[in-house]
Amino acid sequence: MALSLKKKTTSRSPVGLDIDGRYLAAAGVEAGRLSRAASADLDPGLVSDGEVRDAPALGDALKGFFSTHDLPKSVRLGVSNRQIVVRQIELPWLEDEEQRDAAIRFQAADAVAMPLDEAVVDYQIARRLPGVDGTERMQVVVVAARRSMIEGFMDAARAAGLKPEGIDLNAFALMRALGTDEAEQTSRVYCNVSTFVNLAIAVGDVCVFTRPLSATWSPGEPGQASTLADEIRLSIDSYMGQPDARGVGEVVLSGPGCSDEELAAELGSLLRLPIVVAPPLGVVEGSSVPAEDDPHRYTVATGLALGAAA
What we know:
Blueprint: E1 15-19, E2 23-30, E3 33-41, E4 47-48, E5 51-52, H1 55-68, E6 74-79, E7 84-92, H2 97-111, E8 119-130, E9 136-146, H3 147-159, E10 163-169, H4 170-178, E11 187-192, E12 196-203, E13 206-216, H5 224-240, E14 248-254, H6 261-271, E15 275-277, H7 299-309
Parallel strand pairs: 1-6, 6-10, 11-14, 14-15
Antiparallel strand pairs: 1-2, 2-3, 4-5, 7-9, 8-9, 11-12, 12-13
Helix pairs in contact: 1-3, 4-7, 5-6
């Protein structure tokens, strides 16, 4: 199954499934509101650093989770780990769809640092724009992921009797859930603070940079803000080294860790950037979140469901 960056219409309504290292979260979205939501703690060791370590055991956990909460079997999975590469490329615009696809995939072979026969590749045309010579060009976001990593998630889902309808990047799901401003001219950093901290940088509604961070988050553990600030700063520096990079206007925090007010305040002081704590479900109305749950667990799952429903 290919990574899906594009919005695809489906007759069914898959739930977004976020497989975090510490928990599972599933969300369904209908008519702009959360229609169903469930989460459960996940035993340690099944998923580590964003990769499946024990597919059969994760399959058992997913099967029990979906049965307990009577969730639909159709799912849209999210992934985030170091086996994923996101690159922007720019090419002359080609009207013929087959020629355009061939040109993009040929250029992608140079842009991503992995053999394409070992990767799952997808792309999205972000913008069409005039070139300096007056001819039309296109900016393309290319995503490549190790096939073996994707298969680990697929094997676990299928062992649980689930029907994966698509695979998306957690970074894209995060932006989708929190909402973006297409006209925005400065860069915005999105940082989902959870077991595995994920970062994306966007200009308007286009993701221009993403990477998982080495920093981890655990409730109450000291010194996390300093480590996280260093990782965010390193990511911003890497992004600013790219052609046409734009200055960062603010950092948007999401995920279970963003509820830590001291963490948010310290990050703002260390980074010297405005820190915004995102609403847990962003653009989606969320009255269906169980009262005993942390609503920040559902941000990525909601974004995945929005991608399925679009």
